[in-house]
Design a protein that fits this description.
The chain has seven helices and two strands. The protein is mainly alpha-helical and 196 residues long. It has one domain (3-195). The chain has a two-stranded antiparallel sheet. Helix 1 runs antiparallel to helix 7 (126-167), helix 4 packs antiparallel against helix 5 (79-111) and helix 4 packs parallel to helix 7 (126-167).
Length: 196
């Protein structure tokens, strides 16, 4: 796979992960599918930091858009575009790390029994608090996983961008490539360098 095709695959994956992060963070503002606690300002601080919306969402979505462009024909499909994609991927890494830290901290608070009141200070019903704990734990866990995947994909794009910057994006015609011939070929098992 050439670096341009790899960029497109990474960008499409980042689109999906960023969408999941944004949706999860929005849902966290409505525990138990109720708007009451958001209106009363009783949402935990880790939700208000919007790690999934800002970090895993917007800060990953912007690099994904540019990375997608680097994989297409045109002004961005060149060495310069691949070099710039490294910087955008670095922004995605920062966003993924921010989302990871916020999600991890929120997950730890959700799992601490003595922190139930930290989430909904007005609630005294233990069963209800437990239900909200599971609600948040599931969403923070999803954010944690998506942030790790986003981090790995952005790091991969940084490496891919480095190769694209050095070797090009494989978009030019007449590019040389290696072809391994079958055992019936007289040149087997030696590769032949030929143009496409």
């Amino acid at each position: 796979m050439c670096t341009a095709s790899c960029s497109r695959c990474i960008a499409i994956s980042l689109y999906l992960l960023a969408f999941i992060s944004i949706v999860c963070n929005i849902i966290l503002f409505f525990p138990g599918w109720s708007v009451q606690y958001a209106m009363n300002g009783e949402i935990m601080k880790e939700v208000k930091l919007m790690g999934g919306l800002i970090g895993g969402g917007l800060m990953v979505l912007c690099p994904a858009l540019f990375i997608h462009l680097t994989g297409k024909h045109g002004c961005c499909g060149n060495r310069c575009g691949m070099c710039v994609s490294i910087l955008f991927a670095l922004l995605g890494v920062a966003g993924a790390l921010y989302s990871f830290v916020v999600a991890l901290w929120g997950l730890l608070l959700c799992k601490a029994k003595h922190e139930y009141s930290h989430y909904l200070s007005v609630m005294t019903d233990t069963d209800w608090c437990t239900k909200m704990k599971h609600f948040n734990t599931a969403l923070f866990s999803i954010l944690l996983v998506t942030s790790v995947l986003e981090f790995l994909l952005c790091v991969t794009q940084m490496i891919n961008g480095l190769f694209g910057c050095i070797c090009g994006t494989c978009k030019n015609t007449g590019i040389l490539s290696w072809h391994i011939y079958s055992a019936n070929s007289p040149t087997f098992p030696f590769p032949l360098l030929s143009s496409k």
